[in-house]
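We were asked to recover a plausible sequence for a given structure. The inputs and outputs are reproduced exactly as logged, with field labels preserved.

PROBLEM: sequence recovery
POSITIONS: 501
GIVEN STRUCTURE:
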């Protein structure tokens, strides 16, 4: 099996259909397949071989997808990297991955070039753009259809294709090694849950360097033969316009994007909504936002659960049977358990750590055998997420195991408090976490972003929460902030929030 088989199979079936549209440009499945073949030859001429690792560091564009599939067909290993990373972040990823090649964008070279120059083993250096720095090769020169072709590599199911670095909560990022079969099986598992139809347009501003963007926006669209319309950044105005103008659409998004679309639609209701459904992932979607979005866009949201180490999706609500607040059931081929600290199964309703098994689970963490053993012990991926299961079998994420607050011996789950804060009409965004306390061990604290032109005090918010939950849970510390720090995928970064005055 090879991930690039998705492209060749679809190109043979619907060659003239648009595969990807971006910034006024588009490419058909047949054109994409031919360009990928030409690029395989171009990369082969430069000496890139099966098993070699290649950093792919560009913003969303059609060329990103072409390089990605060419590396798959060549049997090489892609290392997708956020193009706005700084030298310190890149130094670890570049050296840890052992990459021989680099494909980047001319507008994002200031940070990676010094790192590349310190790594002579990264000898193949390619750039997209008008200006080519010394030592780099223009990407467009590698698309020569007249050159001698290079045969696609024969890859096994377990051969690695992607090394994706996870940010984690502490320490340096770890490289999750994903095989062709991991990524392909995840696409096949969720494809049956997506009620897509011929003619649907997939809308996505998800970054392709992220596993969610790769598997769902890109690979699933290619496999299903759907046109993918991408953006290189999230602009709610542009996305709302696309929802209005297209005939039939599917939206892939993260909660921050959905929240921003709700705010925009509240102020300027859409003339029409082409959305048949939306898939939300990356982090939990507050239920208040969930309900508002469905009402404003006359659609429904499919929420599930995944992580990089699972390629990524392993649980999801079945179509038409979504249970609000739930992550649903294991997708076909996957299993899930909830266990205590000794890995013993807990009874329904009890909170424990979520464990996953299935064909999408990673091979290992690159160069980290101890972390691999701990995470994959007993043949189950230990997610670090706290969850519960109801009597009907639906799973629910309670919180991150490491983010749980222990206040005076009581467990407090930040997500529960955040859900209450989002019910207040003045709250735009909220993040709850624990802060040190000399007597209780930890105190509950919240950073809150208010909607524009709203005047409300911390005490009023505190009282609002206090009236709705047990006394030990409400946040004694509340700080109003202008914005919350976020990752490139829109996930709130609690570790970067300061609650000090």
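RECOVERED SEQUENCE:
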């Amino acid at each position: 099996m090879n991930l690039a088989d998705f492209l060749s199979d679809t190109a043979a079936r619907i060659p003239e259909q648009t595969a990807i549209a971006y910034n006024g440009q588009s490419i058909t499945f047949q054109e994409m397949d031919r360009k990928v073949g030409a690029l395989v030859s171009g990369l082969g001429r430069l000496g890139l071989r099966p098993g070699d690792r290649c950093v792919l560091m560009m913003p969303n564009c059609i060329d990103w997808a072409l390089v990605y599939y060419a590396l798959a067909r060549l049997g090489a290993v892609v290392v997708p990297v956020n193009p706005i990373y700084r030298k310190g972040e890149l130094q670890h990823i570049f050296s840890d991955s052992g990459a021989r090649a680099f494909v980047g964008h001319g507008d994002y070279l200031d940070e990676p070039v010094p790192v590349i120059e310190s790594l002579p083993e990264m000898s193949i250096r390619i750039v997209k753009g008008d200006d080519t720095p010394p030592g780099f090769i223009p990407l467009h020169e590698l698309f020569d259809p007249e050159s001698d072709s290079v045969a696609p590599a024969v890859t096994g199911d377990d051969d690695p294709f992607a090394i994706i670095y996870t940010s984690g909560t502490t320490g340096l990022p770890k490289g999750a090694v994903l095989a062709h079969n991991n990524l392909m099986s995840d696409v096949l598992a969720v494809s049956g849950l997506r009620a897509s139809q011929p003619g649907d347009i997939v809308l996505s501003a998800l970054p392709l360097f992220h596993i969610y963007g790769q598997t769902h926006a890109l690979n699933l669209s290619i496999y299903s033969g759907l046109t993918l319309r991408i953006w290189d950044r999230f602009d709610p105005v542009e996305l709302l316009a696309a929802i209005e103008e297209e005939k039939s659409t599917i939206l892939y998004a993260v909660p921050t994007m959905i929240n921003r679309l709700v705010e925009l639609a509240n102020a300027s209701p859409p003339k029409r909504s082409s959305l048949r459904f939306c898939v939300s992932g990356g982090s939990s979607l507050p239920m208040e936002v969930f309900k508002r979005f469905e009402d404003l866009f006359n659609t429904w949201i499919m929420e599930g659960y995944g992580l990089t180490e699972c390629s990524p999706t392993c649980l999801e609500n079945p179509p038409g049977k979504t249970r609000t607040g739930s992550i649903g059931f294991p997708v076909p081929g996957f299993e899930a358990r909830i266990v205590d600290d000794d890995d013993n199964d807990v009874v329904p309703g009890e909170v424990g750590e979520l464990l996953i098994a299935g064909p999408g689970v990673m091979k290992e963490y690159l160069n980290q055998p101890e972390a691999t053993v701990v995470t994959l012990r007993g043949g189950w991926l230990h997610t670090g997420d706290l969850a519960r299961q109801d009597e009907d079998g639906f799973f629910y994420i309670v919180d991150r195991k490491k983010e749980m607050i222990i206040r005076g011996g009581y467990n407090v789950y930040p997500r529960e408090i955040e859900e209450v804060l989002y019910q207040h009409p003045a709250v735009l965004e909220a993040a709850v976490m624990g802060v040190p306390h000399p007597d209780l061990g930890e105190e509950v604290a919240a950073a809150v972003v208010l909607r524009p032109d709203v005047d409300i005090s911390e005490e009023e918010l505190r009282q609002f929460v206090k009236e709705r939950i047990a006394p030990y849970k409400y946040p004694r510390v509340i700080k109003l902030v202008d914005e919350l720090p976020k990752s490139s995928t829109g996930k709130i970064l609690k570790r970067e929030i300061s609650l000090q005055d």
